[in-house]
Amino acid sequence: MSEEQGPLPGLEVRDLTKHFGGVQAVRGVGFAVQAGECVALIGPNGAGKSTTFACIAGQQAPSAGQVLWQGELLNALLPAQRLRRGIARTFQVAQTFEALTVLQNVQLVLPGVSVLSPLQVLDPQAQQLARDLLARVGLQEQAALDARSLPYGAKKRLELAMALAGLEPQTGVRRPGLLLLDEPAAGLAPSERAALMHLVRSLTHDASAKAQLAVLYTEHNMDAVFGVADRVLVLMEGRIAASGTAEAVAANEMVRSHYLGRAFHHRPGVHHA
Ligand code: ADP
Ligand code: MG
Description:
The chain is an alpha/beta fold and 273 residues long. It has helices at 49-57, 79-84, 102-109, 124-136, 152-166, 190-205, 246-251, 253-260, and strands at residues 11-20, 23-33, 38-42, 64-69, 72-73, 87-90, 177-182, 213-219, 231-236, 239-244.
């Protein structure tokens, strides 16, 4: 591994390997992400991005290798146990509770709210917290709508608010969190993509952000890394093929010939305001 290890370790992925029968989805992947960093994991479809996420968040058990968060080995922990330690994720296809309102979707995920009675009356503080999270993702006006009535782009924003809600401390001290976003802008129109990626960026680089967050997100399109990611990891056929700034990986000869295409040129200003 070439990544620098800070004094407070964030996420460390060591020699991660995942087979599905004969399919080698992830083959010895290693990297680290520190609090305050926004890192993109890019690569073509089938490269192993979602599988890497599933091994970090706990939906899949690695075939080999280690996933550590703040120095603690996570391999044997369930997704809910990892969430309690500060690791939240979204999915490639937005997952929301369709029959509940936008506000209820966020309330349901707040720590300490019973899953069995999501409609319970919350104390005003929790109610306000849910509204603050909706405001953070630009959905304050939609709080009372049913989730099913939201356009897809708004659903992706709601899913983000829900992941942030899962990272809220139950009592007292706010701890560092890791937000894993699997193709946060997938399925969105270009104008919506830019706005959502700007929001993703702001989660780690907004002076008003309360938490020490690390963000790791996947994408298969380079337009979502320029001006957003501090660092880019390129995954190809289950291996890290390149890493560095967006500019550096876009100029990498191997990445150009096998993934982006030699004609690839980033046009600054087109995708990000
Ligand atoms: P990406 O997210 O980069 O598109 P995935 O991690 O979804 O890639 O998939 C990597 C490889 O692993 C693909 O060949 C895919 O078909 C396979 N794969 C992913 N999940 C499963 C699964 N649950 N069972 C069997 N094969 C899987
Ligand atoms: Mg995927």
